[in-house]
Design brief:
By secondary structure, this protein is α/β, with parallel strands linked by helices. The protein has helices at 7-38, 48-66, 79-86, 127-136, 152-161, 194-204, 223-234, 237-240, 250-256, and strands at 91-96, 114-120, 143-146, 179-185, 205-216, 266-272, 280-286. Helix content is 39%, strand content 17%.
């Protein structure tokens, strides 16, 4: 059983989302000023959705420069968790929402077990950084970037264009499974239809395949942290951070995806920082063979 947090850890957990909110709004403002003052793009001033969409890539890259190696909101000690779950990677791999690729380094020790990695990243501004990260990790010849999102309406056609789905560009082509490993790191918090997306990922996974997860969760303990989660959401968390929500029970949704087979063969899952504003569910789900 995990030890309770120190007072300092608890306070940092409560304030970390505030820092990320301020950081996000600051870089969004920088992008807006650059677009208006340097490029004369007055239209973006009246289009908030366009502003957040176009500013997200540069904003994410800026965050990676100041965040720990595991990216964004994962503290240094959680690197050991990344190493644990990535030790299960093998075969043909789908990585959803890889961003700028700071986590690609964790594939490297297991490169000999990997035949190909398909990174589904919808933000074009992140592709160059992702490509460099894959090359720096020695995976340039195995890592292919797919310009699509993680939701079924975007991902399935993207996979079909790569010739990975025998059934064409609808979800039925994924029923038999095409991937040995699916990696989801801080992505399912932001997909528009989470249950539909997770069900689709389950179908894409081969029997005996593994889904590696590290995902935001809703704080279930209540109290100050749970109240602050709702406050940060009201303050624009989803607007600033690519539709991310703090209030999902993502691990429960993943567990439920196996209902057509009964249950997952194995679920090695733990919850980190369940007392804080940004709890994480981390571990490995194994599909029945």
């Amino acid at each position: 059983m995990a030890s309770p947090p120190t007072q300092k850890e608890w306070i940092i957990s409560l304030l970390e989302p505030l820092y990320l909110l301020v950081f996000g709004y600051y870089h969004m403002l920088l992008y807006l000023l650059s677009a208006v003052l340097l490029h004369g793009d007055l239209a973006i001033f009246f289009s908030p959705n366009r502003l957040r969409r176009e500013s997200f890539g540069p904003q994410w890259i800026a965050l990676n420069r100041v965040a720990p190696a595991t990216n964004a909101d994962a503290p240094d000690e959680n690197q050991v968790e990344f190493k644990k779950i990535f030790s299960h990677v093998s075969g043909r791999v789908l990585e959803i929402g890889p961003g700028s690729g700071v986590q690609v380094q964790y594939f490297t020790p297991y490169a000999s077990k990997i035949t190909a990695i398909y990174g589904a990243e919808p933000v074009p501004a992140l592709h160059a950084s992702l490509r460099r990260s894959a090359a720096d990790a020695g995976l340039g010849d195995k890592y292919r970037i797919l310009p699509c999102g993680s939701e079924a309406a975007s991902l399935v056609p993207g996979l079909a264009r790569e010739g990975l789905l025998g059934g064409g560009d609808d979800s039925s082509g994924a029923e038999d499974g095409v991937f040995d490993t699916i990696v989801s790191l801080r992505v399912l918090c932001s997909v528009p239809e989470q249950e539909e997306t997770v069900d689709m990922l389950y179908r894409l996974l081969k029997p005996g395949g593994k889904m590696l997860v590290y995902e935001h969760l809703r704080n279930r303990q209540g109290g100050v942290a749970a109240a602050l989660q709702r406050l940060y959401m009201a303050a624009g968390w989803s607007f600033v951070w690519g539709d991310c929500t703090m209030l999902r029970d993502t691990i429960d949704t993943i567990r439920g995806a196996a209902r057509e087979d009964g249950v997952w063969q194995e679920a090695q899952i733990s919850v980190q920082n369940d007392w804080g504003c940004i709890p994480f569910g981390v571990g490995v789900f194994t599909k029945r063979a």
